Amino acid sequence: MVDMVDDDKLERRVTGADVANAAGVSPSAVSRTFTPGASVSPATRDRVLRAAVALGYRPHFIARSSRERHGNLVGILISDLGNPWYAMAVQRLSQALQEHAFHAVLFDANTPDMLTRIVPLILQYQLDGLLIGAPDMPLIVADVCAGTATPIVMFGRLSKPELGLSSVACDDHQSGREVVDLLVERGYQRLAYLGGEAGPIADTRRGEGFAERVRELRLPPITNVSASESSYAAGGRAADALLGHAQRPDAVFCQNDVLAIGFLDVARNRYGLNVPDDLAVVGFDDIPAASQFPYQLTTVQQPLDAMMTEAVSLISHQIASSAPVPETRLLPGRIIERQTVRSPV
Amino acid sequence: MVDMVDDDKLERRVTGADVANAAGVSPSAVSRTFTPGASVSPATRDRVLRAAVALGYRPHFIARSSRERHGNLVGILISDLGNPWYAMAVQRLSQALQEHAFHAVLFDANTPDMLTRIVPLILQYQLDGLLIGAPDMPLIVADVCAGTATPIVMFGRLSKPELGLSSVACDDHQSGREVVDLLVERGYQRLAYLGGEAGPIADTRRGEGFAERVRELRLPPITNVSASESSYAAGGRAADALLGHAQRPDAVFCQNDVLAIGFLDVARNRYGLNVPDDLAVVGFDDIPAASQFPYQLTTVQQPLDAMMTEAVSLISHQIASSAPVPETRLLPGRIIERQTVRSPV
DNA sequence: CTGAAAGCGCTTACAG
DNA sequence: CTGAAAGCGCTTACAG
User: Fold this and answer.
1) Listing from the earlier edge strand, what are the strands of the sheet with A334-336?
2) Dist. CA A226–CA A234, nearest whole Å
3) Angstroms from B42 CA to nearest CA on chain A
4) Would the CB atoms of B101 and A2 count as touching at under 8 Å?
5) Mean pLDDT throughout A274-303?
6) Which nucleotides of C are covered by protein (CB under 7 A)?
7) Phi and psi (nearest 5°) for A77?
8) pTM for the predicted model, two decimal places
């Protein structure tokens, strides 16, 4: 549903020309007084400013950008704003963007279908750049992203390398390995991995590092379960799948905290398991809920601030560069020990 | 820090004129084939389209909007994206905006100071409209909002009536009253209200309705505490303030769920209180955590979808109208009973 | 249905 | 330092 816009507004927008008339100067003069660093004499600047406040004039940024061939608009495309980690990421991103004199245009697409429809539209808008946090983006869409001229960087998960997209993420692979070491050191033996949705374009290095280290250590093979989505409820369902039989794992590494929390709650409340004695649960992200009283979740914390700062610095360089090349930036994660893994003996 | 933009990009943007040349038609023709409902013969449309895909042409929406005198850009200004309710609101808002063919420009300002700096900037950007969810916005800023020509609607909380701003919110006053009735019916006697930050421009009708009904019923006067911010930690601190002495309340109504959850956790874990037997806790919003296992929080649910749909429908009408008048829309809240208030006897 | 022209509001070489 | 002019990429009366 698109509304019609009625152009008969009574008050016409006051324009630079109006100010020029009022101040008795040329349009160029008023433009100059509003572009930092341009050369205007204090006298004319003063007259312009005076006229401008009198008329309530403000330069029209959109029009400005059409002349300058860039709009200082960068998009943020997100598929799961319901996940607190992404909400925090968007917050940091828009702050960092503001500091770089960009504005953040937010696009939300919850399903692969919406993603498929929306991406071409976004590209059409010809933003200066696009930041993507949508691990469930279909491959075809990633291809159109790779083919476009507008700089794109993925955040939160590395894009599969063959895609040729820039990304900034946490070193998931290394963190996955470290989680195994922690678990083994604390005496757990039957490890399991709970992955999120398939994530056509996002790598799966969290689980891979985990599995790799398990193999190196010649531990019994891990059980893999995969949640259909990253939600509290899905975490609970995974617990049902994993904990229902006798040979259940004694430690599970979850792809993210919301899954972990859902898992934890049914492990305790439906199966009466004692965490961390009967079962260890470790998450990923360190969302606020992880440190709340009932959870005290041991998890790997992503360096959110650094990652988001990096992401906008990367995209801002790509925007400024004449021939941007895809880059990937990996920042180290850090295990935060709380109460869902046994303490050292 | 502002990055320089290097304009020497090798590939020039392909423009409508390029397509016109390639197709052997006028620029008007290509413009027409890209504006729905314009009159072009199938033949020329076809040639244009063919040339367009060959060259990879896409109309430049920003330039388009300068001619059309509106950009289809509406801002969302938010001060607490860390609160899940606001995150969900932004999600719905951006979806609804997309459906109305608007784009959402996101602004984040965590402090009154940032708000004060950012609002004039936003207005300068001359967006078509602005949606504000920032109860902690200083009064002066609200005044500049009221004085501007760009349509503005506040969401989530009603703006104080004297401000002359449009808003859509839940009927907080009524819900506050209903919470008292519920609590009294279930046998609680010493009621308390835990408010959030002062909120210079947001009304305080949640607490007022609550207090009003308490007076009507001639119950003992309520205790009022006010958290410095809406956070889990602040909720915990409020519990310390309220539960430390003998004459503690036996029911507390919290301004929102994140406060309520923080309160609940320290009430149980630090004070060993049995909720709901020793103490009732009711929240506001119905964020996802409210229905999680450890909480099962009784809370008043705001009709999020309806509110956000209403908000964008309101602003889109104001954008379309030649003389928009401030309107306020109140939707009913609904108490969701879970486990933090005793069941009926 | 179609094109030539003028315009959106602003900026930026170009002369002076 | 300043103005007249041309331009950003697109659209929309105006004629035909």
Assistant:
1) A223-226, A191-195, A251-254, A280-285, A298-301, A334-336
2) 9
3) 23
4) yes
5) 97
6) 1-13
7) -105, 125
8) 0.86
